């Protein structure tokens, strides 16, 4: 990889992303946050707040990786980086199965033991969390988060900014809209419209 790496967001989810990036051999050296953090397990150097006007590291050729769990905030930060011509590589754990026949955008995080099977397409700035299974021909739109252990059967579509909770199961061919939240352990057997929160088995509308 050309250039040093800085992580944006260095707590909770960011620590997992940093750990994965280092494990994958990325030269991670810096972090960006509003303030200096108290918990710094990887001894990273503070680079500043990327949203601050005084931030002066855009022209240093760094790669920026996204360590923010919230879908909307992560996507907004990604736009800030792209606007400043920063690079947004994917962070991919060493132990994943990615079919050679998938399409993958930029700024994604793919955690340990995730599987993405043939002909699936993943947009930009997504989180495919630990142990999730994305079966054949799925479509994951920008900014979505597929939670730990979630299973998307074949040809499932997940809209932008949507979150699929831990261990949820989505039946084949289902279309999940944009800005949807699917609760942990939910079993989805019907399409879910935009801006909906569902949970349970079978999934029921919470709001
Ligand atoms: C690495 C990581 O940590 S990634 C993050 C992984 N985290 C997850 O997957 C958690 C996903 N979030 C959830 O499951 C949440 O419970 C949500 C978003 C579905 C709902 O949260 P809230 O809106 O706060 O709902 P609240 O807790 O008030 O519950 C409302 C009702 O839904 C039920 N409910 C909430 N979550 C679930 C669920 N996952 N499955 C079944 N029922 C549920 C509650 O029992 C309650 O039922 P009632 O009205 O009959 O009493």
From TrEMBL:
Keywords, sorted A to Z: Acyltransferase, Repeat, Transferase
Pfam families cross-referenced by the UniProt entry: Hexapep (PF00132), PglD_N (PF17836)
Organism, as annotated: Mucilaginibacter rigui
Assigned protein family: Belongs to the transferase hexapeptide repeat family.
Domain PglD N-terminal residues, every copy: 4-79
Protein name (record): Acetyltransferase
